[in-house]
Amino acid sequence: MAAHLKKRVYEEFSKVVQIPHEEVPAKKLRLSKPSKSAALHIDLCKATNSTDALQYLLQFARKPVEVESVEGVVRILLEHYYKETDNSVRLKIASLLGLLSKTQGFSPDCIVDDAINTLNNEKSHQVLAQLLDTLLVIGTQLPESPAVRQRLIEVACKHLSDTYFGVRNKCLKLLGCLGMVDTPLKDSEGLGTLLGIVRDVQSIISDYFGDQDPRVRTAALKAMLQLHERGMKIHEIIYDQACRLLSDDYEQVRSAAVQMVWVLSQLYPESIVPIPSSNEEIRLVDDAFGKISHMVSDGSWMVRVQAAKTLGSMLQVSPHFLEQTLDKKLMSDLRRKRTAHERAKDLFTSGEFSSGRKWADDAPKEKLDTNTVNLIASGACGAFVHGLEDEMFEVRIAAVEALCQLARSSPSFAEKCLDFLVDMFNDEIEEVRLQSIHVLREISTHITLREDQLDTVLAVLEDSSRDIREALHELICYTNVSTKECIQLALLELLKNLNKYPTDRNSVWKCLKFLGSRHPTLVLPLVPELLSTHPYFDTPEPDMDDPAYIAVLVLVFNAAKSCPTMPALFSDHTFRHYAYLRDSLSHLVPPLRLPGSGLDLVDSRCGSGSVESSQLFLQQSLNRVSTIQNLEAPGAQDLLNFTIRDLQRLGELQTELAGAADFCATYLRCQLLLMKAMQEKLWNMAVPLCFKQNVTATAAAQQILEETYKLEFLYSGLESRQVATIHHVRLQAKALQLILTSRTRQGLDSLISSCEKFLQDIESFQRLFKAELPHLQDSFADKLLELMPRLSSCKPVEMVKILQMTLRQSGLLQLRLPEQIHRATATIIEPTGESDNPLRFTSGLVVALDIDATLEHVQDPQSTVKVQVLYPDGQSHVIHPKPGDFRKPGPDRHRLITQVYLSHTAWTEPSQIEVRLLLAYSSSSNSLSSPSSASKLGWSDSVDSLPPPEAAVEGTIPFSKPVKVYIMPKPARR
User: Fold this and answer.
1) What is the pTM of this model?
2) What's the gap between Cα 872 and its chain centre?
3) Mean pLDDT of all residues in the chain?
């Protein structure tokens, strides 16, 4: 029995109970930060006088305040504000209240009542103005609180009667920024109330147009303009008050009044306003145009500039008012021209006697007051003439720009202002000359130059400024001329320019190309003279190396494209020269059909569907490559080779798709290199036996990295999906480098740091392209992210094995093209690299080499484009051009005109140096760097041993063909 009991007891107490494992919740730590309000309170309590308190407040203003501490700090400041007697300290506290109200994430509605209460007992005008400024900040931070806005408007209206101008200014500004916008509401009572406030706000502000202080008058005008900017329609009755302020004694009042008059002329252009001292009426926009034109003769040059700029935007003005601005004579001797019926009626009603020759010929005319002009203010007559002859060049530039804006919308006005713009080509200031050339270029479609005008224009070709000359060449490209003498004159002056400034060669040739294609019928009678042909005698063949002769041929051949009778006037050598120029300067010489000489060159323009078919071919090539997973290694490599070759050829044939084709070819080349590096025989061999293959794979990995940087920084128009694809290839190349590192004889520490660096790269990839990860299914990166927990905890050798297996199993990631990809390109125009004459200089000194290059599709060239000079002894110098050396002639096009200084020791014979352009890049611009670098350190707790992150990768990409220049440093004479 005892034994049985003992057994039962043992059975009862030896039971194993499985308790389910519960996860212990992680403890949440709350970091307590030192209270800003407590620290400020202690500081202010320590202050023994107002100077100490001000110093503490200034120190506090330099430190940032967290959102959760703002309200406490505000309470401490307000508490001290009520105690403080010194005005400067209260002023600083009021300023700090405004700054704290702007804190991101803080809603200042809790301090509105306190801020308004501080106004009631404040005696200092300066502090009062600062408090009103703080209320304005609070009101702008609470745009969806009409009750707060209403209270602030009432406060502003209450203090508008203050004697200090600064307080009145702040009140007006507050009314302008917070006045209710006139919006219809469903509730009729609310609508009436709201409309009452709207009317009151505008009428209250307009009452201060006549304030005794000019600063308040300016503030009132600006407040009204602020209402307009916020969408409230200004009442038309303001117009008369604004016009009176145009004659104010204070410059800033007149400037704001000009702006106010312009706003009203745009709001009510067709309204009719009466003319003073007359029974005539006029459109408001015409009246405003006349009054603003009068301001072009203002005493302040800043008002004159603003008036001239404003005139350019008044496109609704009547044509006869517009044309009057170019004539200094007042219209009709200040009298209105009357109709025949009105004149007959006057004759009939006149009862005066006369000599009898004409009825009422001696009737007294009405007395004319020259100060009251019937139709248009006297200042408007010749307003632009005054503006173009102003002593300040800023006014002249503004007048030229205004003429441009008005002439673009009115062809008749463009013809009338042509002489005035051409006269501006002789201005003493280069900026004015350049602006007038640009303006004439913009309105060139409306005008045709006469011979005398063209003579004035071409005189500017003597200018020493390269920018002026090139702008003029651009103008002549788009200008129409009237006679063949004009063509002859233009050609003669351009050839003189070519002789005086040989560096303008390409610009002059391009100018003559457009001049010929625009005027084929005017060039036709000049062909025998230009080509020196004779009906009976053979003339000597000109030299094809002469730039002037090439310029003449460019003019003639471009005219011949639209004139089929012209080739009959050519000599035999002209046909040969055409074939030569067509090959060497195809961008300047068009394809022609030249009969009778064996040259039947037809324009090889592509059909409309050629771009679409090329795009389809490009897409089909990418789709074909996507089937590479099903092929064996040799077949897959052949397919990639053939596709790369086809894409490169497509880029050469179809310039519109050159960027996309090059991009795809480079991407496929990376995949081909990766495939060759991962061949079976390399990885099945023992490490000591595969040294040659190892070197090949290392070179391939390095080349893939370089190509990915080209893909990322050399092409514009990429979307985030393409950038993710590029970084995916870069990740594969880094994995390959890590595997190859492990196969070389390196220390364990080096391998550990490489593994940690790779883990950081994976985390950076995941963080940057989180949105693109669904498009990377079954890719190398996707598999790595699945294995990330294992990779973070395993040993380096095991990690390398996992990477090798994953890299071999991952397939080709499909590339999807965006709408438009452009490749950054650069063409060096000067130096040409064709001269055999060496550039001689004394060794040890410097010589300047002029660089002229055209850049296409380069983002931010001022900071990325560099010039590299490579000497024969292997030395390389990289020069960063100044920002002023870059010009932007068109969208996505830049021009680099700079000088590079060369120097070297003495040489025994001349040698060639290479000049090329580089595109600098830095991967830090791609937000790859993150402070959370060593978040998962698998084997080392030290951050110091880590290699620099990928954000530090910087480099340069050559993106222009190198140009070779002969130089000869001579030994110095003793």
Assistant:
1) 0.68
2) 40
3) 77
